[in-house]
Structure formats: structure tokens, C-alpha cells
Amino acid sequence: MKVLLVYPNDRMDGLISVGVSVLSAHLKAANHKVELYDTTYFDTGKKTGDFYREQMGQVIPVDLSKHGIIREKKSLNELQKDFRKKVLEYNPGLIGFSVLEITYDQGLELAKSIEDLPIPVIFGGIYPTFAPKIVLKESCIDMICEGEGEEMFVELANNLEQGKDITKILNLTIKKDGKIYRSGAEVNFEDLPTGDNIYGERTGLRRPQTHMGNTLLAPDYSIYENKRFLKKMGGKVVRTVAMELSRGCPYTCTFCCVPMQQHQHRTARSHYANFKGIDGSVLKQKDPYHREKPIPHFIKEVKDTIEKYDINFIYFTDESFLSMSKERFEEFIKAYSEIKLPFFIESRVETVKPGYAKALESVNCTGVAMGIESGSIALRKSLLSRMMPDETIIKGFKEFEKTNIRISANNIIGFPGESREDIMLTIEINRQINPDSVVVNAFRPYSGTKLRKICIEKGLIPKEERAEDNRVYGAFYNGVLKAEELENIRKVFAFYVTFPKNRWREIRKAETDNNLYNKLMQEYKDKQLLNRKKRENVAISIHENISAKEVFINDESAVVI
Fold this sequence. Notes:
Blueprint (H helix, E strand, L loop, with lengths): L1 E6 L10 H12 L3 E6 L3 E2 L5 H7 L16 E2 L2 H15 L3 E5 L5 H9 L8 E4 L1 H5 L1 H5 L6 E3 L4 H13 L9 E5 L2 E4 L2 E3 L42 E4 L2 E8 L2 E2 L10 H15 L2 E2 L5 E2 L7 E2 L2 H15 L3 E4 L9 H11 L6 E5 L8 H7 L2 E9 L3 H8 L5 H9 L7 E8 L6 H14 L3 E6 L7 H8 L25 H16 L5 H7 L3 H14 L20 H6 L8
Helix pairs in contact: 1-7, 14-16, 16-17, 16-18, 17-18
């Protein structure tokens, strides 16, 4: 069967999707033909993550046009026509969309353009998993995948090709003959989850998520155009791919959908204990949601990928890369020392043990991103389920100070009930760690998260409102601070972190004075070169003993109207 995979990507950067790549590999292994429709380099007028990060001075700008990459301007109507043409020419037997909450809109519009064609359309990804009722109400969408799809999608393609029943496939929710079938069981449409009441909703019976065993196939990157391998990293353009050493996360942050995924996994285990997974191994009730790929198997994948695609950089998609045993970390370091291809990881401060930074540097890790999220201990514990003390955060970042690894601190502002004083605590802890890159995003209540439920209960968002991209779009009223004030703080956040405190009044004025803001942003970009080895240490001054509260939290003369 010919399968068309669709990757809507109107707001994100150019990182290749590892999920789509692995799915393609398994479809091809089952003798299906696969092609990809990827909208990454179509410019529909929306801001991209790359644009935002460069504008905010978070990354070093790079002109991709010098590398032959120019985003083609297309209106929505033109994009729909282009997609329809692709479908008619390729004539697939199945079309699969991989969407996030922030890319669902574009995927939906593409699906509408082919609604009259007799081709089954399935949506998969985070958003359909947590809001199946909202997705399935659209007449142009025939079915959705809930959870991971390597096993489900291959079974679906096989059954369609062979004319077999597809209503009993696990992880598949399908509309057929006016009825809804969810993992084999007939259900009422009104009983489907909407993404807002995560644990009170019927999660459905679905297959436990894929094992990371030796037969989970390596990603198939051949479906991508050659230019998609090029990505901006550290002021350079590298040929990179996304790879995963693990899936899932052992932590339970309330602004993340991982707790719900863990819940679904436990529910599935209880129904499908002793079920054989994709690698033929038996899935036990004790099998964790956070799964790890055997390192020898992964190293072979890397070597094969380098040889086949001429890769010179790896971007690990692991949600918390260092959440592994000390023994496994040492095994990785020893094995990867044979390769030493530059790579980037994301992790948690709690997982950084003494000596880890130096070890990572020794095998050519060039960048690490870790989340602070909030500097308020009270908020972290009561709202975010991030129980680490400030000392743990500082210690985790300080481990990288004597290395050449660029360290990025990820922050979020605008949590429900978060005050200006809470945000200043976040700024203060960023000043203590002095990262190479200060990243601050606006909180968005994504479906399947505990904080979305809280936002709805407090009346901060409508029940079925889709969350926008937290990197690109501004904050919303959080019950304490207006959206405008939160956005004004966000745009000068890095100034507060890196400039001396005797300039904080000036920065406060820049929150609402665009001319002053532009002047300070230029100064920030000039002086803070996103490299701690080169940038000036402007955080130290004779005014360091002044507290944030003293400077302007209670400063009536500086209050924004």
C-alpha cells in the first residue's frame, strides 16, 4: 500500500521529526511505500520558533538562504491546492497526519482540502491522543491514533490493504457507519476525552507503548528532502538528525503531558499484561513508561546514520537525557567515545551528577538545555510538581561552568496565580547560574496537562481552546497579571538576568517603551554573545545586594499602568 505521511510545521524550527521517521521505517519494513508531505519550508505568514528566538536574542542568527534554504511564501489556499495536487499524483491508500496542538490547525486545513477524496485520513500525535473528541468531530478526519503508533499504523495499513476489519485495532479510534470504535470497543462520541479533565476521563483500552528493544527500527530519514538535514545550531549550520536514546520521562511536571501518558501506560499495562510488543518480547505490568534503548543498538544506529546521510551533528530528543543509571551513563560515554559526533541534549538539574559535565564534554557534547521554569520554591512545590530546592538547580548548572559546553536555562512565566515577585525570583536564580543562553517562554495550557484543568476551573481559558505555541505567542491573563504585563516582562527578561541591577529601573521602563527596548536589545545582542567564554560578566556590580523587591516590586514610581 502507498502511504502518505503529512507533517504540518508552520511555526516550528527545522528539526526533523524522529517519530515520523521511525513510523516510516516500520511501514517500509512491512512492504508499504511511504512518501512525506512536509510544510516546514512553506511560509504561510506565521512567526516561527527560529524567528522568535533570534528576535529575543536567545540564539545567534544564521542566514539559511546562503545554504539554499528559502521558505516559499504560500497562502493557505495555495498550500491546500499544493497538498491536494500531491495527493492526486501519489494516490495513496492511507494518509497519516502527525500533529501537535500547535500544528493541528494547519493539519486540519490540509485535510479539509481532500475531504471529497475516498482516502482514509488518520491523525496521530499528542493532540489527538489527549483531545480525541475535538479532533474526531471534524468530518474530514476518519480516525485517530491514541498513543504511540509504530504497531498500530502498520496493522492499520496491513488490514486496509487486505480488506480486513480495522475497528478492533488497539490504539485506534475510528468513525464507521455512524459509530465510534475505540481500541475495539464501541463507545459514545460524547464520552470521548476533550483534553481538559485528564484523570477523570475514560482513557480507553490501548496497547502499552512501544518497547525500545533491538527490533524497534532505526529512523528512516530518506523521506526528507536533503535541505531538511540543515539546522541552525550555535551560529552555524549543521547537518543534523533527531535521535532518541530513551522515550518517556520519569518526572511529573504539571505543565507537561507526561503524567497523563504515564497514567495511560499504567492503564494499558493492567489490561495487556503479557502482551507481545513490537520486538516480540512480553510486556509486563511492571514495564515503565520511561524506556531506554540498548546502547549497543543505538551506537549502530548512529554509525549507520552518519554513513548513509552524511550527518555531522545529533540532536537528542530524549525528554530528560540524563535520567539514567550511573552505570548506563558510563556505558554511553564509553561507547560514544568511538564516534564523538557533536550533540545537544536536554535534561533535568537533578540528574546532573559530579563529573557528568566533564564526561559529556569528553565525547563532544556541545550544548545542554535544562529547565528552571520558576525560581519560586513555593510555586514549584505547590503548582508545578518540581520539588528541587534552589541549591539543586544552582549545583546542576554550575557543573558545566568549567567546560566548553554551552548551557541554556529554560524558563516559563505566566503560570496560574504567578506574581511579579515570583517572576523576579526566577530572574534572581538565573543571575546566580549565569547561563550562556536565557530562554523564557510564556506558559500555555496544553491539553492533557494538570495545569490546563486548573486554568479551566479558574475561568482563565475556555474549555475547548487550543493552546498556542509557548515560544512564539504571548501569555494570557493568569489570574494575577494581565497578558500585556506578562508579555512585557518576558521580552526584557534576559536584560534583568544579564545587566547590572543599577540598570533595572531603565529595564522596567523598557517594558513599555519600545524605543528603549530596541536600544537595550541591541546592546544585549552585542555584548552577550551567547557564549560564556566571550561575554562580559555584567551581572556583578556594587548594587548586587539590592533585592528585586527593593528595586521595583514595591516601587510605585515604576508601576506599569
